[in-house]
Amino acid sequence: MATLRLSPLCSRAAAPCAQADSAIVPDSPEPAASNPSSLADNLDAVYRFSRPHTIRGTLLACFTGVGRALVESPSFLPLIPTLLPKAMLGVLALLLGNLFIVGINQIYDVEIDQINKPFLPVAAGRISPKLAWALVVGSGAAGLAVVKAVFSPLIFWLYLFGTTVGGLYSVPPFQLKRFPLAAGLTIATCRGFLLNFGVYYATREALGLSFLWNPAVSFLARFMTVYACVIAVTKDLPDIEGDKAGGIQTFALRFGARKVAGGAAVVLGLNYVAAVGTALLAAPGTFRTALMAGGHALAGAWLWRSHRKLEPDSSASIQEFYKQIWNLFYFEYILYPFI
User: Which candidate, 268, 251, 258, places its Cα nearest to that of 324?
Assistant: First the structure.
């Protein structure tokens, strides 16, 4: 249900943030099918072009945000089947927006991807530039059409804003990704604040409820804003060589993997300490103290363990460390509805 109002907002998060997500390891290189012209191989290429893992965090934020709102208003649970068709259209719009963002990134970053991610369809030559543009333009137009037809003007403009920012992240001469602070602020604002605020607000609006600034929502928006800032920096750790060749100045390129990974671990560690402190110092009944404090203490320990295992000179170790940051990101959303 929330996805229906929220998909544009989520899509926004899949906007510049989809670029952040796209550095995750899950898209592992796999050889093309033996018959490159087969239907199965063509479908597989399009599937990989969509970078399906990039929407995982956004979808998780959507569903857990909806869950949070429904936990607070359980009397609305019987309405879910009625609202499901519209919610699915919201999911479709989200997927189309995500395809637009990650697709345009692959078009303009093809030379960098040939170094950093040579298995991606455009970089590997499995999808031609002409087909890539057709997929990007088609998905962008279709996503806007769905949102325009089904959702409110506010949601439409938010969706348009999100896809525009996502495009500017990669498209010259803007290429916001070239500027670490601009890229970081964009990702932090969208994935950290706008997404989490928007999901909760959109769900309550769809249920006909007035907006209520819930302490758990406030906490998550703050926590994830810091987390998104860290992701905006660490997403470049596995891509130093390609960014160097492409003239993309990142903190990882300037300061090296060891310093950036260490700084990220410190910031995230303090974020977890603050989360535990928030749980312990809040007024009684504000949070489920044991679950919130214990869950974040466990996550902080996992972060510490992951950083201890990091070997900055090993690309495989760097990728594993970055993957663990994203696993902890997903864990936060799993924890969120229950705190």
Answer: 268
